[in-house]
Amino acid sequence: MSSANAILVEQIDAVLPQTQCGKCGHGGCLPYAAAIAEGEPINKCPPGGEATLHTLAQLLQRPLVALEQPAEMPQLAVIREDECIGCTKCIQACPVDAIVGAAKQMHGVLEAECTGCELCVAPCPVDCIDIVEHPQWQAAHNELAQQRYLNARAANGRVRHRARNARIEARKAALANKRMARFKQRLAPESTPAQRPQAQPAPFSQGSSQGSPSRNSALVARLQHKLSRMAADDPKRGELEQRLAEMQHSASAAPQQTRQLKMALAAAEQRRRLAERHVQHCYRQAGPDEITAAQHALEQARTTEQAARTALEQSTSLH
Ligand code: SF4
Ligand code: SF4
Ligand code: SF4
User: Fold this and answer.
1) Which residues line the pocket of ligand 3, CB cutoff 6 A?
2) Does 203 map to a domain?
3) In this predicted model, what pLDDT tens digit does every residue of 200-226 receive, in sequence order?
4) Which of 127, 131, 106 is nearest to 19 (CA)?
5) What is the distance in angstroms between the CA of the first residue and the CA of the last residue of the chain?
Protein backbone atom coordinates (compact mmCIF):
# COMPACT_ATOMS: atom_id res chain seq x y z
CA MET A 1 0.00 0.00 0.00
CA SER A 2 1.39 3.41 -0.95
CA SER A 3 1.79 5.98 1.82
CA ALA A 4 -0.85 8.24 0.18
CA ASN A 5 -3.30 5.35 0.20
CA ALA A 6 -2.39 4.48 3.81
CA ILE A 7 -3.17 8.07 4.83
CA LEU A 8 -6.50 7.92 3.01
CA VAL A 9 -7.38 4.64 4.76
CA GLU A 10 -6.59 6.23 8.15
CA GLN A 11 -8.76 9.25 7.26
CA ILE A 12 -11.67 7.02 6.32
CA ASP A 13 -11.17 4.85 9.41
CA ALA A 14 -11.29 7.99 11.56
CA VAL A 15 -14.83 8.64 10.29
CA LEU A 16 -16.14 5.10 10.92
CA PRO A 17 -17.86 4.35 14.27
CA GLN A 18 -15.51 1.53 15.36
CA THR A 19 -18.10 -0.85 16.71
CA GLN A 20 -16.19 -3.55 14.75
CA CYS A 21 -19.54 -5.23 14.05
CA GLY A 22 -18.76 -6.52 10.55
CA LYS A 23 -22.17 -5.51 9.19
CA CYS A 24 -20.38 -3.85 6.25
CA GLY A 25 -19.18 -7.30 5.22
CA HIS A 26 -15.62 -6.77 6.49
CA GLY A 27 -13.84 -7.98 9.62
CA GLY A 28 -13.96 -4.55 11.28
CA CYS A 29 -13.86 -0.85 10.50
CA LEU A 30 -10.25 -0.68 9.29
CA PRO A 31 -10.71 -3.37 6.59
CA TYR A 32 -13.86 -1.57 5.42
CA ALA A 33 -11.89 1.70 5.31
CA ALA A 34 -9.27 -0.03 3.11
CA ALA A 35 -12.03 -1.39 0.84
CA ILE A 36 -13.64 2.08 0.52
CA ALA A 37 -10.24 3.51 -0.45
CA GLU A 38 -10.18 0.87 -3.21
CA GLY A 39 -13.59 2.00 -4.49
CA GLU A 40 -16.17 0.05 -2.44
CA PRO A 41 -19.48 1.91 -1.82
CA ILE A 42 -19.65 4.14 1.25
CA ASN A 43 -23.19 3.21 2.31
CA LYS A 44 -22.66 -0.10 4.12
CA CYS A 45 -22.26 0.97 7.76
CA PRO A 46 -25.51 0.75 9.82
CA PRO A 47 -23.97 1.95 13.12
CA GLY A 48 -22.57 5.02 11.32
CA GLY A 49 -25.94 5.81 9.72
CA GLU A 50 -26.62 8.99 7.75
CA ALA A 51 -24.01 11.06 9.61
CA THR A 52 -21.12 8.78 8.65
CA LEU A 53 -22.46 8.46 5.11
CA HIS A 54 -22.51 12.25 4.66
CA THR A 55 -19.02 12.67 6.12
CA LEU A 56 -17.61 9.95 3.87
CA ALA A 57 -19.29 11.45 0.79
CA GLN A 58 -17.76 14.82 1.64
CA LEU A 59 -14.31 13.42 2.39
CA LEU A 60 -14.14 11.34 -0.78
CA GLN A 61 -16.12 13.68 -3.04
CA ARG A 62 -18.54 10.89 -3.91
CA PRO A 63 -22.30 11.23 -4.59
CA LEU A 64 -24.71 10.51 -1.73
CA VAL A 65 -26.51 7.18 -2.01
CA ALA A 66 -29.09 5.55 0.23
CA LEU A 67 -27.88 3.40 3.14
CA GLU A 68 -27.76 -0.28 2.22
CA GLN A 69 -29.26 -1.29 5.64
CA PRO A 70 -31.24 0.84 8.14
CA ALA A 71 -29.20 3.01 10.51
CA GLU A 72 -28.81 1.78 14.12
CA MET A 73 -28.93 3.52 17.48
CA PRO A 74 -25.90 2.97 19.77
CA GLN A 75 -26.47 -0.30 21.60
CA LEU A 76 -25.34 -2.28 24.62
CA ALA A 77 -25.30 -6.03 25.24
CA VAL A 78 -26.80 -7.19 28.54
CA ILE A 79 -26.38 -10.75 29.79
CA ARG A 80 -29.26 -12.27 31.76
CA GLU A 81 -26.94 -13.51 34.46
CA ASP A 82 -29.13 -16.18 36.01
CA GLU A 83 -29.42 -17.93 32.63
CA CYS A 84 -25.71 -17.77 31.70
CA ILE A 85 -23.95 -21.17 31.78
CA GLY A 86 -20.43 -19.72 31.60
CA CYS A 87 -19.44 -21.31 28.28
CA THR A 88 -17.16 -18.30 27.40
CA LYS A 89 -18.30 -18.31 23.75
CA CYS A 90 -19.33 -14.65 23.99
CA ILE A 91 -15.88 -13.66 25.28
CA GLN A 92 -14.27 -15.26 22.28
CA ALA A 93 -16.63 -13.42 19.91
CA CYS A 94 -16.30 -9.94 21.43
CA PRO A 95 -14.02 -7.81 19.22
CA VAL A 96 -13.24 -5.29 21.97
CA ASP A 97 -12.83 -7.53 25.06
CA ALA A 98 -15.91 -6.05 26.70
CA ILE A 99 -17.07 -9.25 28.43
CA VAL A 100 -15.68 -10.59 31.69
CA GLY A 101 -16.27 -13.96 33.29
CA ALA A 102 -14.69 -17.32 33.94
CA ALA A 103 -15.45 -20.78 32.57
CA LYS A 104 -18.64 -22.22 34.12
CA GLN A 105 -19.33 -18.92 35.91
CA MET A 106 -21.65 -16.06 35.21
CA HIS A 107 -20.44 -13.53 32.62
CA GLY A 108 -21.00 -9.78 32.51
CA VAL A 109 -20.63 -6.99 29.95
CA LEU A 110 -18.51 -3.93 30.73
CA GLU A 111 -20.96 -1.18 29.86
CA ALA A 112 -18.33 1.45 29.12
CA GLU A 113 -16.44 -0.84 26.71
CA CYS A 114 -19.32 -2.47 24.81
CA THR A 115 -19.78 -1.07 21.30
CA GLY A 116 -23.11 -2.86 20.81
CA CYS A 117 -21.78 -4.81 17.84
CA GLU A 118 -24.07 -7.82 18.59
CA LEU A 119 -21.35 -10.34 17.72
CA CYS A 120 -21.79 -12.05 21.10
CA VAL A 121 -25.49 -12.77 20.53
CA ALA A 122 -25.35 -15.55 17.93
CA PRO A 123 -22.70 -17.75 19.61
CA CYS A 124 -24.57 -17.85 22.96
CA PRO A 125 -26.01 -21.39 23.20
CA VAL A 126 -28.74 -20.40 25.67
CA ASP A 127 -29.71 -17.11 24.03
CA CYS A 128 -29.29 -15.10 27.23
CA ILE A 129 -27.89 -11.87 25.73
CA ASP A 130 -30.19 -8.92 25.10
CA ILE A 131 -29.32 -5.89 23.00
CA VAL A 132 -30.68 -2.63 24.39
CA GLU A 133 -30.20 1.05 23.65
CA HIS A 134 -26.96 2.17 25.30
CA PRO A 135 -27.72 4.04 28.55
CA GLN A 136 -24.96 6.59 27.91
CA TRP A 137 -26.61 7.40 24.58
CA GLN A 138 -30.03 7.65 26.27
CA ALA A 139 -28.53 9.98 28.86
CA ALA A 140 -27.05 12.29 26.21
CA HIS A 141 -29.73 14.98 25.92
CA ASN A 142 -28.25 17.21 23.25
CA GLU A 143 -26.21 16.87 20.08
CA LEU A 144 -22.97 17.84 21.79
CA ALA A 145 -23.35 15.15 24.46
CA GLN A 146 -24.32 12.59 21.83
CA GLN A 147 -21.29 13.43 19.69
CA ARG A 148 -19.07 13.25 22.78
CA TYR A 149 -20.36 9.75 23.50
CA LEU A 150 -19.88 8.61 19.88
CA ASN A 151 -16.33 9.99 19.80
CA ALA A 152 -15.44 8.23 23.06
CA ARG A 153 -16.97 4.95 21.84
CA ALA A 154 -15.04 5.17 18.56
CA ALA A 155 -11.70 5.97 20.21
CA ASN A 156 -12.15 3.20 22.76
CA GLY A 157 -13.38 0.66 20.19
CA ARG A 158 -10.43 1.34 17.89
CA VAL A 159 -7.80 0.99 20.63
CA ARG A 160 -9.32 -2.13 22.18
CA HIS A 161 -9.88 -3.86 18.84
CA ARG A 162 -6.31 -3.20 17.72
CA ALA A 163 -4.94 -4.38 21.08
CA ARG A 164 -6.97 -7.57 20.82
CA ASN A 165 -5.79 -8.20 17.24
CA ALA A 166 -2.18 -7.59 18.26
CA ARG A 167 -2.53 -10.04 21.15
CA ILE A 168 -4.04 -12.72 18.89
CA GLU A 169 -1.33 -12.21 16.26
CA ALA A 170 1.44 -12.40 18.90
CA ARG A 171 -0.03 -15.65 20.21
CA LYS A 172 -0.18 -17.12 16.69
CA ALA A 173 3.41 -16.04 15.96
CA ALA A 174 4.68 -17.59 19.21
CA LEU A 175 2.92 -20.84 18.34
CA ALA A 176 4.30 -20.82 14.78
CA ASN A 177 7.84 -20.20 16.14
CA LYS A 178 7.54 -23.14 18.50
CA ARG A 179 6.30 -25.39 15.70
CA MET A 180 9.15 -24.28 13.44
CA ALA A 181 11.71 -24.96 16.18
CA ARG A 182 10.32 -28.47 16.64
CA PHE A 183 10.27 -29.04 12.88
CA LYS A 184 13.92 -27.99 12.56
CA GLN A 185 14.80 -30.25 15.44
CA ARG A 186 13.28 -33.20 13.62
CA LEU A 187 15.16 -32.36 10.43
CA ALA A 188 18.52 -32.50 12.25
CA PRO A 189 18.46 -35.75 14.26
CA GLU A 190 22.25 -36.19 14.07
CA SER A 191 23.18 -32.69 15.26
CA THR A 192 25.16 -32.28 18.48
CA PRO A 193 23.39 -31.08 21.63
CA ALA A 194 25.07 -27.68 21.22
CA GLN A 195 23.70 -27.36 17.67
CA ARG A 196 20.14 -28.37 18.50
CA PRO A 197 17.65 -25.49 18.68
CA GLN A 198 16.95 -24.51 22.25
CA ALA A 199 13.39 -24.08 23.45
CA GLN A 200 12.43 -20.38 23.61
CA PRO A 201 12.34 -19.13 27.18
CA ALA A 202 8.64 -18.79 27.97
CA PRO A 203 6.58 -18.42 31.11
CA PHE A 204 5.44 -22.03 30.76
CA SER A 205 8.27 -23.84 28.98
CA GLN A 206 7.86 -27.53 28.38
CA GLY A 207 11.42 -28.36 29.33
CA SER A 208 13.31 -30.88 27.23
CA SER A 209 10.50 -33.03 25.85
CA GLN A 210 11.48 -34.23 22.38
CA GLY A 211 8.48 -35.82 20.71
CA SER A 212 5.65 -38.33 20.85
CA PRO A 213 6.11 -41.62 22.76
CA SER A 214 6.27 -43.68 19.56
CA ARG A 215 8.79 -41.33 18.00
CA ASN A 216 10.85 -41.26 21.19
CA SER A 217 10.98 -45.02 21.48
CA ALA A 218 11.93 -45.35 17.78
CA LEU A 219 14.80 -42.90 18.30
CA VAL A 220 15.89 -44.62 21.50
CA ALA A 221 15.92 -48.00 19.71
CA ARG A 222 17.94 -46.51 16.84
CA LEU A 223 20.49 -45.01 19.22
CA GLN A 224 20.78 -48.23 21.20
CA HIS A 225 21.31 -50.18 17.96
CA LYS A 226 24.01 -47.74 16.80
CA LEU A 227 25.76 -47.92 20.17
CA SER A 228 25.69 -51.73 20.16
CA ARG A 229 27.53 -51.75 16.82
CA MET A 230 30.02 -49.04 17.77
CA ALA A 231 33.56 -49.79 18.97
CA ALA A 232 34.17 -48.99 22.65
CA ASP A 233 36.84 -46.41 21.76
CA ASP A 234 34.85 -44.72 18.97
CA PRO A 235 35.16 -40.93 19.48
CA LYS A 236 31.44 -40.44 18.66
CA ARG A 237 30.33 -42.85 21.36
CA GLY A 238 30.24 -40.27 24.17
CA GLU A 239 27.94 -37.97 22.23
CA LEU A 240 25.52 -40.77 21.34
CA GLU A 241 25.39 -41.99 24.94
CA GLN A 242 24.56 -38.46 26.08
CA ARG A 243 21.72 -38.18 23.56
CA LEU A 244 20.35 -41.53 24.63
CA ALA A 245 20.39 -40.47 28.30
CA GLU A 246 18.62 -37.19 27.41
CA MET A 247 15.85 -38.99 25.55
CA GLN A 248 15.29 -41.50 28.33
CA HIS A 249 15.19 -38.68 30.88
CA SER A 250 12.72 -36.75 28.73
CA ALA A 251 10.34 -39.73 28.55
CA SER A 252 10.39 -40.23 32.32
CA ALA A 253 9.98 -36.49 33.07
CA ALA A 254 6.92 -36.02 30.81
CA PRO A 255 4.10 -36.88 33.30
CA GLN A 256 5.60 -34.60 35.94
CA GLN A 257 5.89 -31.73 33.44
CA THR A 258 2.23 -32.14 32.49
CA ARG A 259 1.23 -32.05 36.17
CA GLN A 260 3.25 -28.86 36.68
CA LEU A 261 1.72 -27.25 33.59
CA LYS A 262 -1.79 -28.11 34.83
CA MET A 263 -1.01 -26.47 38.17
CA ALA A 264 0.39 -23.43 36.35
CA LEU A 265 -2.79 -23.15 34.26
CA ALA A 266 -5.02 -23.44 37.34
CA ALA A 267 -3.02 -20.67 39.03
CA ALA A 268 -3.20 -18.48 35.90
CA GLU A 269 -6.98 -18.99 35.66
CA GLN A 270 -7.35 -18.04 39.29
CA ARG A 271 -5.25 -14.86 38.77
CA ARG A 272 -7.36 -13.94 35.72
CA ARG A 273 -10.60 -14.45 37.69
CA LEU A 274 -9.31 -12.18 40.44
CA ALA A 275 -8.28 -9.57 37.85
CA GLU A 276 -11.78 -9.70 36.31
CA ARG A 277 -13.39 -9.21 39.70
CA HIS A 278 -11.05 -6.30 40.36
CA VAL A 279 -12.04 -4.66 37.05
CA GLN A 280 -15.72 -4.97 37.95
CA HIS A 281 -15.02 -3.57 41.41
CA CYS A 282 -13.14 -0.61 39.90
CA TYR A 283 -16.02 0.10 37.54
CA ARG A 284 -18.35 0.32 40.52
CA GLN A 285 -16.15 2.21 42.94
CA ALA A 286 -12.93 3.60 41.46
CA GLY A 287 -11.76 6.37 39.16
CA PRO A 288 -10.51 6.23 35.53
CA ASP A 289 -6.82 5.68 36.45
CA GLU A 290 -7.58 2.69 38.63
CA ILE A 291 -9.92 1.29 35.96
CA THR A 292 -7.18 1.60 33.33
CA ALA A 293 -4.65 -0.08 35.64
CA ALA A 294 -7.09 -2.88 36.45
CA GLN A 295 -7.81 -3.42 32.74
CA HIS A 296 -4.10 -3.55 32.02
CA ALA A 297 -3.63 -6.14 34.77
CA LEU A 298 -6.52 -8.15 33.31
CA GLU A 299 -4.92 -8.07 29.84
CA GLN A 300 -1.69 -9.42 31.31
CA ALA A 301 -3.52 -12.10 33.27
CA ARG A 302 -5.34 -13.21 30.10
CA THR A 303 -2.07 -13.35 28.15
CA THR A 304 -0.44 -15.41 30.90
CA GLU A 305 -3.41 -17.74 31.08
CA GLN A 306 -3.35 -18.25 27.32
CA ALA A 307 0.39 -19.00 27.43
CA ALA A 308 -0.23 -21.56 30.17
CA ARG A 309 -3.07 -23.15 28.21
CA THR A 310 -1.00 -23.32 25.01
CA ALA A 311 1.93 -24.89 26.88
CA LEU A 312 -0.33 -27.51 28.43
CA GLU A 313 -2.04 -28.29 25.11
CA GLN A 314 1.32 -28.70 23.42
CA SER A 315 2.62 -30.84 26.26
CA THR A 316 -0.39 -33.17 26.20
CA SER A 317 -0.25 -33.45 22.39
CA LEU A 318 3.45 -34.33 22.63
CA HIS A 319 3.24 -36.93 25.35
S1 SF4 B 1 -19.09 -0.11 12.49
FE2 SF4 B 1 -19.49 -2.15 11.69
S3 SF4 B 1 -20.45 -1.78 9.70
FE4 SF4 B 1 -19.49 0.12 10.33
S5 SF4 B 1 -17.50 0.08 9.37
FE6 SF4 B 1 -17.25 -0.72 11.44
S7 SF4 B 1 -17.43 -2.92 11.17
FE8 SF4 B 1 -18.27 -2.02 9.33
S1 SF4 C 1 -20.28 -7.35 24.56
FE2 SF4 C 1 -21.28 -8.16 22.74
S3 SF4 C 1 -22.23 -6.37 21.80
FE4 SF4 C 1 -20.77 -5.59 23.31
S5 SF4 C 1 -18.90 -5.25 22.11
FE6 SF4 C 1 -18.73 -7.30 22.95
S7 SF4 C 1 -19.56 -8.66 21.36
FE8 SF4 C 1 -20.21 -6.57 20.87
S1 SF4 D 1 -22.24 -17.23 25.48
FE2 SF4 D 1 -24.09 -16.99 26.74
S3 SF4 D 1 -24.05 -18.72 28.16
FE4 SF4 D 1 -22.02 -18.58 27.26
S5 SF4 D 1 -20.87 -17.34 28.75
FE6 SF4 D 1 -21.67 -15.92 27.21
S7 SF4 D 1 -23.62 -15.23 28.03
FE8 SF4 D 1 -23.05 -17.01 29.21
Assistant:
1) 79, 84-90, 101, 107, 123-124, 126, 128-129
2) no
3) 444 554 444 445 555 666 777 777 777
4) 131
5) 45
pLDDT at 124 over 60: yes
Higher per-residue pLDDT: 8 or 228: 8
Domain co-membership, 81 together with 166: yes
Residues 56 and 79 in one domain: no
pLDDT per position as a tens digit, 228-272: 777 777 777 777 777 777 777 665 656 667 777 887 888 778 778
- The CA 117 to ligand 1 mean position distance, Å, reads 9
Among 135, 158, 188, residue at a domain's last position:
188
Query: Has residue 196 been placed in a domain?
Result: no
For residue 135, what are the domain limits? 73-188
Quickly list DSSP for 26-77.
SSSHHHHHHHHHTT--S---TTTHHHHHHHHHHHHT------SS-----EEE
Specify whether 125 is located in the same domain as 168.
yes
Backbone torsions φ then ψ of 94, nearest 5 degrees:
-70, 120
Chain mean pLDDT for the chain: 85
Q: Which pLDDT does position 66 carry in this prediction? A: 97
Helix, strand, or coil here: 236?
coil
Number of folded domains that form the chain: 2
Atom of ligand 1 nearest to the CA of 21: 2
Q: For residue 104, give the ligand nearest its CA.
A: 3
**253 in any annotated domain:** no
In a domain, 211, yes or no: no
Q: Is the CB of 34 under 6 A from ligand 1?
A: no
Question: What CATH number does residue 181 fall under?
Answer: 3.30.70.20
Helix (H) or strand (E) run with residue 91 in it: helix 89-93
Is residue 41 located within the same domain as residue 139? no
**Per-residue model confidence (pLDDT) at position 261:** 84
- Residue nearest atom 5 in ligand 2 by C-alpha distance: 114
